[in-house]
Fold:
Amino acid sequence: MTRTRKMHVLIVDDDPLTRLMASEALREGGYTSVEAEDGLRALALFDAERPDLVLLDVMMPGLGGFDVCQHLRARPEGQLVPIIMLTGLDDGESVERAFQVGATDFISKPINWTLLRFRIRYVLRSAQVMQELVRNKESLSSAQRIARLGSWEWFVSEGRVQRSAQYYRLFGQQAETFGAFMEALLDHVYGPDRPMVQAALKAAAKGVGYQLTYRVVWPDGSVRTLLETAEPAAGGSGLLLEGSVQDITEQVDTQRRIRQLAYFDPLTGLPNREFFRESLLAAVARSLRNDSACAVMVLDIDRFGRINDSLGPERGDQVLQVIGHRLRESMGDRTPAEPAGGGGLPRLKVARLAADEFGVLISDVGPVEEVLERAYRLLAVVRAPIRVPGQEITLAARIGVAMMPDHATEADALLKAAETALNRAKRAPGEQVALFSEEMKVAAFLRFTLEGDLRRAIGEEELQVFYQPIVDVRGRRIAKAEALVRWAHLARGTVPPPEFISLAEETGMIVPLTRAVIEQVCSDIAQMGDALPPDFRVSINLSGVNFMDPQLIPTIRAVLEAARVPPSRIEFELTETVLMRDLDYATATLAQLREMDIRVAVDDFGTGYSSLAYLRRLAVNTLKIDRSFIGELHDSQGLAIVEAVIGLARSLGMDVVAEGVETPAQLEALQQRGCHLIQGYLFARPMARQALMHLLAGGVEILPQRVAVPSG
Structure:
């Protein structure tokens, strides 16, 4: 079996890191490579190695890239070898000079190495076609028809041009309508590309060959992309140039699709995080060079997950598309899907960084007050009502702002500063726009430190479980208790549960944390033993991350068996939102819990779906009325909601628990409407296991004496 020879590439760059990355990218693409650190070494290696392609840096000490390219083209062996020039320069003069000295292609830094491999593949493919044509000129007509290649000869001194039949087909033209002279080509070239082609023809008339890509317009208005190569040839008298033209529209479209996948968000069409980062790198470099300022905003939509949960992901996608369009229009962003000329990245203004997070980049900004004013205008754009079929949605958002050079002088650090400011805005009540400050940096460091402390606390059993009784006021007894985790930090003291619970959910530590809570609850139940009433249960909260964990059921079984605790002692609390993320999965999981004799309560009921349909489908035993409704029992609307929840639970044969009860008036209103399971400070605060055992033993009267309990 014959093995295909690997293509060999010469890498020329004075930066060892760039050479290393290029070599690795080529190796992954199936190419071999050799490296040169300067121009003289490159010429020597070219003569010795005879590479199939040259990657050539422009800016090098000594013999620069443009000079090396000219030397290579002067060699007989280097006339057809593809040369791709790499540069950090983004001015048109450099691009024009690169092609004037014979470059095949031109790529701006920073380099996307994945796209580079594809570009090399297409360049080598075109070069192979050209070399095959040179070796097999007698079969040129057939090869042109197959490869969609056209050829021409230009007798410059005579002003005469001979073109192949396939050449005219590439322009959608007939020979008699095309034009006789070489300059007739310009009439068919796409307007923006015409100066480039005109400059190439002007140089060719002086004997300078070229290779360039340009677009042409067919009579039907369609646009095609052609690759044209011209070389001086040995003629009789006067200057003779020979050229070939290839239709590379499909290759260009493929590259554009690859670019679209690599740099653009498929849902909104906005640039993605990678595009944003590369544009930010360029913006920061320009600002440093011009001694100007730029700003980054990161915008996050408040509680967007509830849109997906309540209306479905399809409506959520529509909302994101509307928001993306509004932000782009508000910023006057006209970022094209493909930059004109294919070189470098355009200056974007808006990108989609994550699911419901958008980035805004502003170059050459003024005072910070103007930046903040623009941030508030963007918030107003987001707040404008969005109409989707059958629904009008009003959103809110938070924005973090960072400015360069005030807050950072590097792109990644600037973006991180804006994200840190956003986190501050999301955590501070009523703060919609936050400007980065050093205090935030310190707070972010403390949160990072807290993450490590929490990981240690879980491993070393530093967390404590407290129990808040749930009282059955009819029997004047404690029916069950809710397990609540508390953290007494060794240095900081008590850490508020919302702070470390949210941190655990963000970092994935909620799974081991919850397992630790279940293990502690089972251990406490085992220690209390016969002191517990026969029907007494402990309820444990499960987050969405816990519930979707495929190891949830095996973990529960293992912990119960290890502690020798009956499953009937346990009840799990889940919110409506968690249950509705995947109703089929929730149905199957709750069925397994029911088979184990573990009960399930719906926490914060009334704040989400509150749907009879899903309650009938799911194996749910208890509804817990959210404390926000208990606080509104004095209001007719709040009272109506509570009555509806109690009635719904009664009709489905479920228990109903009112949480957050703090006053006798609230208790009386709940009792009058048939709710007898009460949880709240009116009766007891969360307590340690020993205190709970004392209450269960009747050591303390659980009901306030002033509360009247109906008989029967």
